[in-house]
Protein 1
Amino acid sequence: MADYVRPMDVVQEAVELAKRKSELSIRDMLIRGILAGRISWLRHFTRVRHSSQGLPPIVRCDSFPWGFVILVLLGLELVTGNFALLPAGVMLGRFRITKLLRNWAWVYLGNLIGSLLYAVPFYLAITNWRTGNGGAIADLLKQAAQKKPWPTWRSAPAAGQRLW
């Protein structure tokens, strides 16, 4: 018995998983996508909370692994994982591209709904139902957004300039 996994075995297992994902019902894709979107936002908020408490960066990074493990163990659908897995199944002829596009659309929609179901109440809570400015947490979120690097092909918008 070997103590390693052959690369071809990994690919075969990934293609089988892609086939199973391509056959999920719309209901399953939406429910799994919504839950994954909510958990992704929860991971993000945990990181912001740790940052607001002045914890070191290594502690702030803990939210990605535990959030990802939860997604995997619960069998939830995150569109980024499906972007990686499903094309292999199409290229190997296990299912048609229409199933890939169907999966991507429904899982993306589920992730979007789940994210909004977390972000909107979060926004309303920190702004006291839009009567305040969000306080320290909102300031941290603004600072994080301003520190995000812009793609090299495009410069950051000037103050008051629209993005699109």
Protein 2
Amino acid sequence: MIVHLIDGTYELFRHFYGLRRFTKGKDRPYGGVVGVLQTVLQIIENENGDTYLGVATDHVIESFRNPLWPGYKTGVGIERALFSQFHPLEEALAAMGVVVWPMIELEADDALASAAHLASKDKKVERVAIWTPDKDLAQCVRGTRVVQIDGRRKIVRDAAAVREKFGVDPPLIPDLLALVGDAADGYPGIPGIGARTAATLLNRYGPIESFPSNVLGEQRKLALLFKKLATLRTEAPLFKKVETLRWRGPTPAFAAWTERMEAPRLFERCEKAAR
């Protein structure tokens, strides 16, 4: 059994802007949504047998992290044409028969981390595949059993590949991000510490909490705050049994959705995959 966990918000951004290259800037109302559904359906079509999968989305952009750091990412700057597809994506996925986790207090990344944690505890699960290139999710990788997949670049990263790329093992990724910062999430890291220095310190001393007091000095408290921002939550009660993630085909509502999105081929492919 392989469990596929997909970052729906990332995929929506990717397909929304990817489509613009072919539409001369004229946005289709459901263009990004159709792209995400096609990506999910491709995963289903590539499976031999039952498919187990879930999609995490940011129902809203802000989360519990925003009050912790004033510069943390918000919804400011997201184009209206893109933001208007957030909730339709969740509804269309549900109509397609896919398990969806729309996150409010937590983020989609937290949902992926929680789902990976829950699925990996099931002995019947051979592998958990987290579909996103987001470096935050590298902290969830465990050996070859929980891996990260960058579908666009066709890259699969297990624990060895994470260490090769970042210079530290997966559990130390939050510490690494805390030290070097994450521009996408809106926190700057510790001044004067680059990726190479950060990896050297972490491999020498372990997590930030174990650093000698003179290493970070007055910046220690700030580094621990950034680590809190970078650490994904794994306690979201998304499901009790992995079996609930098994895709059983589209719901009766999916036909209307594909008509609304002007994507009849999507419905045909989905019906065929279900058979």
